[in-house]
Amino acid sequence: xxRIAVLISGSGTNLQAIIxxxxxxxxxxxxxxxVVSNRKAAYGLQRAEQAGxxxxxxxxxxxxxxxxxxxxxxADLAALLCDEYGVEWVIQAGWMHLFGMVFLERFPNRVINxxxxxxxxxxxxxxxxxxxxxxxxxxxxxxxxxxxxxxDEGVDSGPVVxxxxxxxxxxxxxxxxxxxxxxxxHRLLVQALHDRLCPTG
Length: 201
Known about the structure:
This protein is α/β, with parallel strands linked by helices. It is 39% helix and 21% strand. The protein has helices at residues 13-23, 43-50, 61-65, 70-85, 101-104, 127-136, 174-197, and strands spanning 2-8, 30-37, 55-57, 89-92, 111-115, 142-149, 160-167. Helix 2 (43-50) links the parallel strand 2 and strand 3 (55-57).
């Protein structure tokens, strides 16, 4: 059994897609060992609890208040995942925190991130809004979703595991585009995890 941690910061719709896939047999041999959020109000924590999955709320603010560094935060979280939960792979599914090498070196080439844009386009936060603005300006006619490894501290720049285009329609609003991108995320993330984590044969 491959034990994964899913890291979230918000509503957890991609987490739900993973939960549904593991419980529905589409990710055989994969177990969600823990769900971690850095935001207490993240609805994804309730999704995990409803599915009987352990949760951890790990905010950065107490470290700052105590004069401790992001490096300390990263090291402690890595130790928690490894030592208490036996995590082998880390899945960033809407996790709004960049890890340093002290964390990433505990999971070499075993951290996967979801980003709602194509490789090299719109890194960082607000990627969907940035794509929408670029479309409005006549710069692009489509955007996309990618799943990539996180080997270092680069922002949305690691080796691509999976990617797909998402068309932008003339009658789209930002909201309809967001909905189509999120639906694509759910499908692509589960497929990428299946291809990367599930045994073949």
